[in-house]
Write a structure and sequence with these properties.
319 residues; globular; alpha/beta; TIM Barrel
Length: 319
């Protein structure tokens, strides 16, 4: 028997179809090029990808922030967003407007040639760093992200700590955990405590928070599930753990996802699947985010991942 659909589970729990609320976060994928090619990457980033934001789009993003004070956060993702030639202008422009800026950093990029000053730039600008570290042991990280990635990630974290990140005085450093396979993340608070002890004792690393994310059954991870004959089982696991209490806080209700070419989506996962949002097709056509309020959110089977267990969003668990 196939798993219940996301839409049928909303109905079963007496919940209305998802609709947009006010937009408070603009999440921009500045390009798909990355120094890594992780197994779980839902946008299938890698060293050979060439898709990237251009100068006109970067200017459009800052202009939108300038005329829309309700958007208080610019969330920069990729690929490795730092590889974009427009990354620093986006950070500077948003910070000059008083917005919070999030750099979704894979850590290893901070060690790449040409990126020697990136960590210092982020600190000088007061940007927050959300860094991927799917475990505190080398073998598990390298199995998911590539050989020697753990060692380089630790060095990246130590560089950030040396600049004041993660020490509770204004430079925020959050770590991101996602499971190695077709399981739900453990309790976020419990795992955060484990990370805190292990990283401090072994490497002297401190951080602010750990964010636990569920692996979405799309793109590379979906193909892995299919090869292993576990796709339907994983969907059933997500559906069996549907949590209606997570629905009010789903990120698609308050985040607008912008692709490298300016096209608009309800979330980063819909962007990866080329499922456009209702309303204007491009950020160039968006005059006011209020155009999007109350419009329906486009849903599909992967939405089960955001509502399973404690829930999952770009800011970690929802409950």
């Amino acid at each position: 028997m196939s798993a219940p659909t996301f839409e049928s589970l909303l109905t079963r729990h007496g919940l209305p179809a998802l609709a947009r609320g006010p937009i408070t976060t603009l999440q921009v994928n500045v390009g798909l090029r990355c120094d890594l090619a992780c197994h779980h990457c839902h946008v299938e980033a890698g060293p050979k990808r060439t898709e990237a934001i251009d100068g006109a789009l970067a200017e459009c993003v800052i202009a939108l922030l300038a005329r829309c004070p309700g958007i208080d956060t610019l969330d920069l993702t990729g690929g490795a967003p730092e590889l974009s030639p427009h990354f620093q202008s986006l950070v500077r422009g948003a910070r000059a407007l008083g917005r919070r800026v999030i750099d979704r950093c894979n850590l290893t990029i901070l060690l790449e040639p040409g990126q020697e000053d990136t960590a210092r730039f982020l600190a000088d600008q007061g940007a927050d760093v959300v860094a991927s570290l799917p475990c505190y042991t080398p073998s598990k990280v390298d199995a998911q992200r590539g050989r020697s990635v753990f060692e380089r990630s630790i060095e990246g974290l130590q560089r950030l700590n040396a600049l004041g990140y993660g020490r509770g005085d204004g430079l925020r450093l959050d770590l991101v955990y996602n499971p190695l396979g077709a399981t739900l993340p453990p309790d976020q608070a419990t795992l955060e405590a484990e990370y805190r002890v292990e990283l401090k004792e072994r490497y002297g690393i401190v951080f602010d928070h750990l964010l636990t994310l569920t692996n979405m059954p799309i793109q590379r991870f979906a193909r892995t599930l299919a090869r292993e004959g576990r796709h339907d089982t994983y969907l059933a696991l997500l559906a069996d753990h549907f949590n209606p209490d997570t629905v009010p806080d789903l990120m698609c209700r308050h985040t607008l996802s912008v692709a490298w070419d300016g096209s608009l989506y309800d979330c980063d996962f819909n962007q990866a699947l080329a499922l456009p949002s209702a309303g204007p097709a491009s950020i160039f056509d968006l005059k006011d985010p209020e155009q999007l309020r109350d419009l329906p959110v486009r849903t599909a089977e992967h939405c089960l991942g955001c509502t399973a267990g404690a829930g999952s969003s770009c800011s970690g668990s929802l409950r």
